[in-house]
Every structure is written in structure tokens, then in C-alpha cells.
Amino acid sequence: MWGRGAVAGEATIVDKRAKSTSGDALVTIYEYVADIRVPGEQPYRCVLQEPHFATNFWSPDVGAVVRVHAYPAKQTASFDKDDPQLNARRRLHAEKDRFDDSARGIPGSPPAPRDPLY
Fold it and tell me: What is the C-alpha separation between 64 and 103, in angstroms, rounded?
């Protein structure tokens, strides 16, 4: 399913830039510089592209560590869209739950803790 030579790895997002923006400026597509790590392989740096069909893709911030499908032989990678950190629906749902928990707290209590995954 991943493609020939792909292995599970992780990427630390080093930098990102806008690659294109829609005419109405509502949608921006980014590309990312990432340090890729795969067990048993030398780390390498590559440019990651946002998935083409990314209706549920959450753009990671610089410094985020996310899962990737790595291709060490080619020194390329692609985002693992099954990573919960990259799932917009899951992130928004977790944020809503956290906010609701804070709203139910007693006066003077700290806000509900953020999910460490997000």
C-alpha cells in the first residue's frame, strides 16, 4: 500500500513555506523541510509535499515530530496521513473536548490539560 521500498519512520519538521495559495486566499498548500529518521538507517533531510488529496490534513508546525513513509534508498518521504497529529478532525474534536472540560471546571481552577499528542 505504501509503495516499493517504503518503511515507517518519523520526521521532525525543520521549516515550512507556502507553495501555493488559492485565488480566494482560503487554501494554502505548504511544503516542508524535514529530518527523517528510520531505525537502522542514517538520518537524512528532505523536502516533504502536502498530500494532494488533503481534505483532512492538519499542517504540522515547525518542530513537530510526525510519522512518515520513508524511502531511505531515495532519501525521500511522504506524510503518514494515519498519524493522529495530522488528522484535522481528530485535532479539532480533541480541542473541543478540552475546552468543554475547562468550561465545566470550578472557578479559579486551571484550564483542562491539552492532549500531549496535539
Answer: 28
Tell whether the model's pLDDT for residue 25 goes beyond 80: no
User: For residues 69 and 82, what is the distance between their CA atoms, to the nearest angstrom?
Assistant: 11
Q: Is the pLDDT of residue 11 over 80?
A: yes
Burial code (b: 16+ CB inside 10 Å, e: under 16) for 52-64 equals eebeebbebeeeb
Of 38, 25, 28, 30, nearest in space to 14 by CA = 30
DSSP of 79-104, one letter per residue? E-TT-GGGBHHHHHHHHHHHHHHHHT
Q: In what order do the strands lie in the sheet with 65-71?
A: 44-49, 28-37, 7-21, 65-71, 76-79
In the chain, domain spans: 7-103
Cα 83 from chain centre: 7
Q: pLDDT tens for residues 85-105?
A: 899 988 888 889 989 999 998
Query: Which neighbouring-strand residues pair with 70?
Result: 7, 77
